[in-house]
Amino acid sequence: MTSPTSTLALSSSGYDGRMDGCRLPASQVRPAPHWRTCMRTALLAFAMAVSGQWSLAQAPQGQPQQLPTITLKAGMHNIRAQVAATFEQRQTGLMFRRELPAHEGMLFVFEEPSQQCFWMRNTLIPLTIAFLADDGTIVNLADMQPLSEQSHCSKAAVRYALEMNLGWFAKRSIKPGYRLVGPPFSRSAS
To answer: Is the pLDDT of residue 18 over 50?
Structure first.
C-alpha cells in the first residue's frame, strides 16, 4: 500500500504542511474542482452509504482498515476494490496487511486530478500501483516494495490510483493505455 499523505505538497518556500498526496509546486495548484467533479465524488459516496457499504469506523491504530468495496473490470478480470475516499482512509490505505487476495485491491479516490505520489511506509506486502485517468485509462504503473519510503508518482494529473499485488497487471499483460471499467469512471474527463 502506500500512504499518499506521506508525500507533502510543495510550496515555493518548501513544504506547505498539506498532506494530501500531491507534489505540485504551489504555482500549479488548481482552484476548487469543477462542480461535476464534486458531484461525481458526492454521488459515489452517497451510493455507497445508501447501499450500506460505507463504514465510518476507523481501524484501530496499527491495524488494517476494512472499507466499502466496488467491482472494477479489467477485460475479463473482476477486481474487488476497497474504496479509500477520505483523507484518513487514503492515509492508511493498505498499511499493516500481511496478505491481499489475488483479485482484490484498493482504489484511492481524490477530490480533483493532480499528480499523486505514494510510498510504502508500514505496508508489509509488495504492490503495483496503477495511476488512472477519469475514464479509467491507466496513465502509468509502478512497482512498490514493502516498507519503502521511496515515492512513486503519477506521470500526469490523475484522480484515481489502484493498488494490487505486485505483478498483477504484468501477469495479465495490462499496460498504460488500458482502460478499466467501473462505477467511478466516466466516459470522458470532466
So the answer is: no
